[in-house]
């Protein structure tokens, strides 16, 4: 199966950022033909059939990249993730949970938008099992716990289910931060008449850049830069809602900026 230039670029970025077992698992997923087929078809359903934005391989890799950047910022600030804080597993294992959940969270879009997070778990279960069995062959208990954590990350990414771990919270926000205008470009090009839900498309097209970096007071700062104020809809109705539902909220500063105007502080 062929991969887009953008997908290949994101895969190179991710593998360069990761090391050890996390890097090996990322490469394993990137080379998995079943995962690629599911992600590609999820985009067919999302864009061509439903008229939604990107929910395919590029989006899932971008969500993973966002989540991993935030993971690193929290780690640098000395924040312990749930698996380590609860004396269950290591920080590396938490990173792997975030990585796998992020890369598989939208494969359920290959079936339907409604309850797609549940379908992502159903479709992803055999994939998750074989990854964990391959990389944790002697530790069934860890396989079970990490699988449950991955499920939490996937089921919680729509902010419709309550989640309780920092790991799942990063998957949720990493997904929400993929809101730059390129994600809505194809649906805008395909559209030929107005329809309900266009506010999401047009507001997304106003988002120029989402930057994730170290905060001034808190470990993470998210800055959303936009060309028009309509982009505030994306910040207030999509991203802020996801952050507010995440256990990571207390570690985040959130700002929005229209052109060169003064920044608006949300958190």
Provide the succession of SSEs: HHHHHHHHHHHEEHEE
C-alpha-based Rg, rounded = 18 Å
Shape: globular
What's the total number of strands?
4
Total count of helical runs of at least 4 residues: 12
Strand adjacency order, main sheet: 1-2-3-4
Q: Low-confidence segments, ≥5 residues, pLDDT <50?
A: 185-192
In this structure, how is the largest beta sheet organized? 4 strands, mixed
- SS strand fraction: 5-15%
The helix content, as a percent range, equals 55-70%
- Average pLDDT over all residues: 92
Euclidean distance between termini CA atoms: 42 Å
Number of domains: 2
How would you summarize what this structure contains?
By secondary structure, this protein is of the alpha+beta class.
Descriptive report:
It contains twelve helices and four strands, in the order H-H-H-H-H-H-H-H-H-H-H-E-E-H-E-E. It is α+β, with helices and mostly antiparallel strands and 267 residues long. It has two domains: 172 residues; 85 residues, 2-Layer Sandwich (GMP Synthetase, Chain A, domain 3), CATH 3.30.300. The chain has a four-stranded mixed β-sheet with strand order 1-2-3-4.
Please render the helix and strand layout as text.
Layout: H1 5-17, H2 20-30, H3 33-49, H4 57-76, H5 82-85, H6 91-104, H7 116-135, H8 140-155, H9 166-176, H10 185-190, H11 198-205, E1 207-214, E2 220-226, H12 232-244, E3 252-258, E4 264-265
Parallel strand pairs: 2-3
Antiparallel strand pairs: 1-2, 3-4
Helix pairs in contact: 1-2, 1-4, 2-6, 4-6, 4-9, 6-8, 6-9, 7-8, 8-9, 9-12
